[in-house]
Structure formats: C-alpha cells, structure tokens
Amino acid sequence: MADHREFQEICLEVDNELTTRGLALDAQGDYRGALRAFEASYVLMSSESSLVSLLGAQLKLGEPFLVAAAFRALREELDGGDARDASLAAELTAVQRKLDEAEAACAVRRALAAADGRPAAALYALGLASNQQCDPKAVYCYFASAYAAQRATSTFLSMLNMKLKA
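Below the sequence we write its predicted structure tokens.
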C-alpha cells in the first residue's frame, strides 16, 4: 500500500512540474512546447485541468475547429457537477469565448479570401461572417459599406433587413 501511495505522490509531483513548465512556456508564447507539457500531464494524470490547458494551447496554435468539439463535450460533462467542477466550468467558459473569437477570425479570413480583392464583395462577406456571430449592428455596417461601394439591390435589401434587426 505504501508503494502505491509513494507512486501517486511521485506522479503528482511530476504532474505539477509539467503543468508549471507548460504554463511558463505558454506565458513565453511557446504554445507548441506548452502543448507538449500539457499533453504529458494529461497522459500522466488524466485531469480535466490538464485537458483544458492542452486544448487551450491547441487553440493558440490556430486549431479552433479541432478544439471546439472537445470543449463542448467537456462542458456538457461538467454541467450539473460538484463545486470543484464549477471553477473548471468557469475556466472553460473563458476558453470557449476565445474559441468563439478564433472561429470568427477564421470566418473573416475565409470571407476575405472569397472576395478575391473586390471591396464590395469583401465588405458583404464580412457582413455574412458577422451574421454568423449574431452581431446585427456589425452586419448592418458591413452591408451599408458594401452598398456604398457598389449599389446592388440584393445588398440594399440585406442592409435593410439588418437595420430592422439592429
């Protein structure tokens, strides 16, 4: 029994060192190094905290779609949990906000790429991307700017629709 307890203590000590290293690397902007440390910590202890840190590092490496499903599944698992889970759920909420921002940034990049250098198309595409984020005021501004750049009936109608929602 003492051997098992000693093994657990060693595992906790190594996990703490890995977590500390991961946090330090994250603070330095070495997200790939932080990811490796958090992965090792998760393999060692399988803690939710290590998983959240691991997923946060993946998010910072620009992998929001890969991380999205894991965050949502973890949040669902924590719903209705105990007080210990409440602090983790709060941390997940903050990371989920970052995930949503990263997904929005990806949508904007895709929209701009699809516009192929045409200003009105780029503005309209940004409006569509903002619409996915449920921001009718921003959508209206983008559609109004797109209409000012190129007067198209469809853009005008989209602009009016968003004006009603904003």
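The CA atoms of residues 115 and 122 lie 5 Å apart.
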